[in-house]
Amino acid sequence: DVLVRIEHLRKYFPVKEGFMSVKNVQAVEDVSFAIKEGETLGLVGESGCGKTTLGRTILRLHEPTSGKIYYRDKDITKGRMLPYRRKMQIIFQDPSASLDPRKTVSDIVGEAIDIHKLASSKAERSERVQELMKLVGLNSEHCCRYPHEFSGGQQQRIGIARALAVQPEFIVCDEPISALDVSIQSQIVNMLEDMQHDLGLTYLFIAHDLSVVRHISNRIGVMYLGNLVELAESRELNKNPLHPYTKTLLSAVPVPDPVKSRSRKRIILEGDIPSPMNPPSGCRFHTRCPYATARCKEEAPAFRELSPNHFAACHIL
User: Fold this and answer.
1) How far is the C-alpha of 191 from the C-alpha of 61, rounded, in Å?
2) What is the average pLDDT across 77-101?
3) Own/partner pairs for 184-190, CB < 8 Å, 24+ apart?
4) What angle do CA 66, 67, 73 make, to 5 degrees?
5) Integer CA distances (angstroms), 222 to 2, 242, 312, in order
6) Is residue 252 very low, low, confident or very high in pLDDT (cuts 50, 70, 90)?
């Protein structure tokens, strides 16, 4: 069953230019996809392409400019979100910035339990918090400490415990491992996979590292300058990338075999990523695409299914 579905979602941020004029930063532009119950949809792309904004807009931490958001086929684009906050949660990228430094871990994790009235007594609340700490690999005595007393990996575990406190069904993982050491990253990824299996969770996993996304995701979407340019199953996308930008990203993934690494051809993009305040006409990738034609400059390509469950937006395909 489809758990979360978005249709033609857009998110613009108004920015003042001078005294009178206002321009829009087109962070997310006409994105549509669905996430099935129990799966992990990976979302990749370079910095500033709109991945985080898309994740936050789905949860309505940013209100969408236009488009529709559906949760179990119910339109949640407008109206009160509090009933859905229990079902939809987020793990933030930087745990040191997302945890309140003035609160103990018990208060941070227990806050959502209090808001949604999930515990009938203080004893039950305390027991629930200790269960969550154990679930993410921390001890019950950590409950009385403050965030600054923990390492980065432990802080991220606290953030995960906070997200799990309301027993959600869907979690947006907003680059949950990018601020951590490599040795800690694998622990967090394995923990997220174990929790998904045990608790039946559904993830939107946002990351830069394609090798991590390949490992954890059932399907992968590729974003460029606010647009979704390709979407396919993880194995299919890595074996048979169709969009020129996806091929560029995959060519940059390191290969542990030195012989294969030397024989691979790295695709280097020319030029800088355009500004989302003034995106190019037609296909937004045409200014850096080695295969761009006159049609690419004038007409935006349709996001269409080119093979079973493999979608891409490109005129040359």
Assistant:
1) 26
2) 90
3) 184/151, 184/152, 184/153, 184/156, 185/212, 187/137, 187/153, 188/153, 188/156, 188/157, 188/160, 189/215, 189/216
4) 145
5) 20, 11, 9
6) confident
